[in-house]
Backbone:
């Protein structure tokens, strides 16, 4: 069949849409010299922004991992009415715009909302502070761990767990000794995907964080703020750092991805 | 599989005194787990989303409709839905071509290309916008400046939606039986006829669901369009940016109304996709 034209078409499309743009920013970053890169990487606003991104991501990934494992087991191993509905609701966040996520959280947890007002009276500020950013990040990355584990749990079946039960294993023992080793690769895959989404979240965090420089500014918000302030070097360097993290994450997921037949 | 599980229970021998045998899950455990999952989902996703819909209807239908039909909001919605449709269609063609090349073609570096396809999922959207701006902005080394034009909206959306069709079509194409194609060839069908009559009908469900997912992603997009398109009202401003502006100026009721429209459009697409998938699975 038309082999070469199709190959060239596909590769040229990817070259101009993906490879050249990303490559150009990486190249421009290193073109400025290592000294400038180090200046950016050691500036207090940069390190603070990365620290915020990291702490928000860690909390969000942790919450979604616990929820993800529990819900996946619930969906695959248990029977209850409304199972299909729960499965559908878990995918819901993927269809919601990040900006709408931010708005939704403000409407419930903002200062002037009943829940948010009550929490603030009790000393817990959600919106324009870290808890809100964690909530927003949990929201956007919620389905990823569940979706990574469910197919593997289904594939695995529960014969081994049943065998463990008949041999007198407690529920926790069979979970730790049978279930966890069985889903380990898929769990790693889901967690890494979740982490990538969390580190890169921009829109939802932009809405709920208030974008306070040096306080609630994350790495992605720092990229935008630096660019808008005509500090291309910092914007490009941070973008390159985030792109390199994304590429590393891609390579890890490639290793962890449930094996496919070639 | 299930037969082997059922048999011992039917045989009547009691394996031992210890507790419920063969995984009769205690309903209490299920209820507790389900309760926790639903609570978590409600506090973070369901109640906030319900609050958006609730807020949008607060002033009644007239207020809702007035907010949606505000000229700049309506223009943004038209642009968002229109550009997303075009982008979904381009994805159907280019995504299928890329999936085809990745499955059927052999060349050096193919696995690198295969890995790169997922980059738009892993790359923060703000970075996506920035890298596109570097290549296609005012300082373009290629002397192609599309920044702040409607074309740039499309390019940003194409970037972030790239993986969807590729990743839905690719596995189907891998599983596709080559015998049918070879039979068609041996009976004298041209490559084009074979593609149209044999391959395309098999790929169509995957192409459509990939396009649907790309469309829902595109109408929701915010970060990548932010820098590249300049977000000029009536020109290049997409709905997500329009909503963002209204949140910033504390007009949350109007923001909620436009958000509700986006949510409804996305849900309709997802429900149609789900029905379509079940229908095509039944047709088998």
Residues:
């Amino acid at each position: 069949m038309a082999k070469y034209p199709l190959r060239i078409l596909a590769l040229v499309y990817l070259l101009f849409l993906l490879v050249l743009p990303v490559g150009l920013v990486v190249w421009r970053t290193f073109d400025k010299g290592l000294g400038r890169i180090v200046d950016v990487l050691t500036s207090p606003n940069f390190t603070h922004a990365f620290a915020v991104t990291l702490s928000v991501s860690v909390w969000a990934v942790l919450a979604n991992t616990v929820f993800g494992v529990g819900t996946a087991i619930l969906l695959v191993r248990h029977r209850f009415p409304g199972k299909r509905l729960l499965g559908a609701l878990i995918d819901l966040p993927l269809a919601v715009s990040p900006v709408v996520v931010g708005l939704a959280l403000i409407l419930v947890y903002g200062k002037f909302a009943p829940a948010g007002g009550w929490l603030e009276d009790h000393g817990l500020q959600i919106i324009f502070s870290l808890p809100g950013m964690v909530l927003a990040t949990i929201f956007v990355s919620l389905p990823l761990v569940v979706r990574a584990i469910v197919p593997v749990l289904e594939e695995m079946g529960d014969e081994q767990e049943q065998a463990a039960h008949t041999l007198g294993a407690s529920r926790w023992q069979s979970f730790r000794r049978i279930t966890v080793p069985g889903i380990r690769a898929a769990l790693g895959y889901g967690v890494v995907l979740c982490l990538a989404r969390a580190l890169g979240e921009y829109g939802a965090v932009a809405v709920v964080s208030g974008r306070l420089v040096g306080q609630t500014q994350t790495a992605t918000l720092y990229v935008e703020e630096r660019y808008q302030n005509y500090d291309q070097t910092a914007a490009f360097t941070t973008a390159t750092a985030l792109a390199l993290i994304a590429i590393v994450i891609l390579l890890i997921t490639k290793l962890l991805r449930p094996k496919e037949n070639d | 599989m299930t037969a082997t599980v059922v048999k011992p229970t039917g045989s009547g021998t009691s394996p031992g005194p210890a507790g419920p045998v063969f995984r009769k899950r205690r309903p209490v455990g299920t209820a507790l787990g389900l309760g926790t999952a639903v609570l978590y989902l409600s506090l973070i996703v369901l109640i906030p989303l319900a609050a958006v819909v609730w807020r949008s209807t607060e002033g009644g239908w007239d207020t809702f409709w007035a907010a949606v039909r505000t000229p700049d909001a309506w223009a943004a919605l038209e642009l968002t839905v229109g550009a997303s449709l075009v982008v979904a269609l381009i994805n159907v063609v280019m995504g299928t071509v890329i999936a085809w090349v990745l499955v059927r073609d052999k060349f050096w570096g193919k696995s690198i290309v295969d890995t790169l396809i997922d980059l738009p999922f892993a790359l923060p959207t703000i970075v996506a916008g920035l890298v596109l701006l570097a290549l296609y902005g005012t300082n373009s080394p290629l002397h192609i400046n599309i920044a702040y034009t409607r074309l740039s909206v499309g390019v940003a959306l194409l970037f972030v939606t790239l993986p969807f069709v590729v990743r839905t079509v690719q596995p189907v194409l891998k599983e596709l039986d080559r015998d049918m194609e070879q039979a068609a060839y041996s009976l004298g069908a041209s490559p084009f006829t074979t593609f149209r009559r044999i391959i395309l009908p098999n790929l169509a469900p995957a192409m459509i669901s990939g396009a649907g997912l790309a469309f829902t992603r595109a109408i929701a997009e915010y970060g990548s369009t932010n820098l590249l398109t300049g977000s000029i009202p009536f020109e290049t401003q997409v709905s997500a940016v329009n909503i963002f502006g209204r949140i910033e100026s504390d007009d949350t009721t109007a923001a909620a109304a436009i958000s509700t429209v986006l949510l409804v459009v996305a849900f309709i697409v997802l429900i149609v996709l789900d029905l379509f998938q079940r229908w095509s699975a039944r047709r088998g």
Remarks:
- Residues 21-256 of chain A form a domain with the MetI-like fold fold (CATH 1.10.3720.10).
- The CA atoms of residues 22 and 243 of chain A lie 8 Å apart.
- The two ends of chain A are 21 Å apart (CA to CA).
- Chain A touches chain B through 92 residues (CB under 8 Å).
